[in-house]
Write a structure and sequence with these properties.
By secondary structure, the protein is mainly beta. 4% of the residues lie in helices and 47% in strands. The two termini are 18 Å apart.
Length: 150
């Protein structure tokens, strides 16, 4: 999984364990005539919801002019370094997931890209077995771009 800002800062998270989920929604406007339902039409576009949970070892590790990698917490919260947004109105990042195919499937997997993703909540948990981050946010696009890897 990679999370990038608009200025070549890249946070790479290698996930053996973790979850990603998203929701694509369509708004529908119900048309009524004198209180009776007479039809429906497409409504406004709805942002795609994105959620992810993954393990972490350090919250802060990247410094300006440093060779240390960027920690997910740092880039998600715009902490410490001047990360740049993919949107002018709200701090947005690009998320890319490379998903491997199970054994016996002909393709090499898929790449799922969410553009202009903004943070709604970030839950941090320190645990006995693992430390986890749970991200919840939305993309300014209606759905992700999915390509098959060959």
């Amino acid at each position: 999984m990679t999370i990038t800002d608009n200025d070549e800062h890249i946070c790479t998270v290698v996930c053996d364990e973790g979850d990603v989920n998203w929701r694509v929604q369509k708004e529908t406007k119900i048309i009524k005539c004198r209180g009776e339902i007479s039809g429906a039409r497409p409504g406004d576009k709805v942002p795609c919801e994105l959620g992810a949970t993954f393990k972490w070892s350090q919250l802060l590790q990247f410094m300006s002019n440093s060779s240390d990698p960027i920690a997910p917490y740092e880039i998600l919260t715009d902490n410490g370094v001047n990360f740049t947004s993919w949107d002018d109105g709200i701090y947005c990042l690009k998320w890319e997931f490379a998903v491997s195919s199970p054994d016996g499937v002909a393709s090499n997997g898929e790449k799922i890209t969410f553009s202009k993703v903004y943070l709604e909540s970030l839950d941090c948990k320190e645990g006995d077995e693992a430390n986890t981050l749970t991200f919840s946010g939305k993309s300014l696009d209606e759905k992700p771009v999915i390509i098959r890897l060959t």
